[in-house]
Write the C-alpha cells for this entry.
Amino acid sequence: MTYIAKPLFAHPSLARNAVGFTRRDYEGRVSTLCAGCGHDSISAAIVQACFEIDLLPHRLAKLSGIGCSSKTPDYFLGASHGFNTVHGRMPSVLTGANLANRELIYLGVSGDGDSASIGLGQFAHAMRRGVNMAYIVENNGVYGLTKGQFSATADRGSKSKKGAVNHDSGIDLVAMALMLGASFVGRSFSGDKDQLVPLIKAALSHKGAAFIDVLSPCIAFNNHAGSTKSFDWVREHNEAVNQLDIMVGRAPITAQYAPGEVITVTQHDGTVLNLRKVAADYDPTNRAAAAAFLADRNAAGEVVTGLLYIEPDSDDLHDSLGTVDAPLNRLSDADLVPGSAALAAVNQALR
Ligand SMILES: Cc1ncc(C[n+]2csc(CCOP(=O)(O)OP(=O)(O)O)c2C)c(N)n1
Ligand code: SF4
Ligand SMILES: [Mg+2]
C-alpha cells in the first residue's frame, strides 16, 4: 500500500555492487497491484538487472503510460527520474526527453493496451525512428486496470473470464517491432527471471530501440483456461531459442561453450552478449529469417522467447538527426545564436 513506507533501514551485511548500492537501493514504493500479478515479477527483474549492471540511479529516466503495468515504475528505481504520461503517449514523451538529454538511459514501461491499442501509432514510430531506449511491454492480453476487457494482443478465439470469445486478430508486437526496424527484439515471461534479467540488462546497454515483450499474466482477469496469456498456457507453450549471458564492462568471459553452440555479439558500448543456442538453426542477427521463424512457430501455437533479433552496430535517432552531444539545457547563448555567418552557411547548404 502506498501509505506504508518501506523502512529505510538496510542490513549492513547486504551485498553491494561496484557503485556501492544494495539491491534495495533500486526498489521503489510498496506495490499496490494484486498479489501474484506478473507485473510485480517484472519490477523485481528490473531491480535485479539495474543492481547487476551497477547502474547509477540518477542516470536513468523511467517513463510509462496508463494501466497496472504503467503504474509499476513507482515500484522500482525510486531514486531515478520518472514521468507517468497519458495513456499510450509514453513513446512521444520519452522521445522528447531523449532528444533534450541524450546522456540519460531511457526505460519505457507500458502495457499491451497502452502500446497495442491506444498507443499503437506511438509504439510504431518509436521503433522505426530508433529512439535510444529499452521499451518493455508487460503483456497480459487485457486491460487489467479497467477490469479485463480484451486488448489488441488477445489472440483470436481466446476466451474472457466470463466466456466471451475474442473475434479480432491479435497483434504480435514482436513481429511488428521486427518489421518496423527495431534493432533489438526480445520476448520473455514474467515467471522466468533467469531469462528476463539478462535480456533487460542487454536492452539497457543497447544503442537504439530495444523492445522486450514480456508475457505477464493478469491473475484477476486473464489467468483462466481458454486464455493464451495465462501462467499455465505460457509455461506449456514457451519455446526459448537461446539463453543469454551478458558481460558488462569488459568482464572476462568465463563460461565454457562448445564451438558452434554460442553466438557472441559485442554491442556499441563494449557489452558482450553470449547467446547459447537452443534452437540450432536460429540466427538472431538475421531479421528476415527471425521474422519467418517466429511466424512459423506462432502458427504452430508456440510462444517463442529469448533474444530474437539484434543488430550490434545499430544507429539511433540522434545519429539520423545529427544532434549535438550536449544536453540542450547546457547549451550557451553562443551555441544557440551562432551569428549571421553560420546562418548564411546553413542557407547555402540548403540551396
Ligand atoms: C485516453 C484514455 N482512454 C482510456 C483510458 C482508460 N484506461 C485506463 S488503463 C486502460 C488500459 C490499460 O491496459 P494495459 O495497457 O494493457 O495495462 P494493464 O492494466 O493490463 O497492465 C484504459 C483503457 C484512459 N485512462 N485514458
Ligand atoms: S488487475 Fe491484473 S494486471 Fe492489474 S494488478 Fe491485478 S492482476 Fe495485475
Ligand atoms: Mg494489459
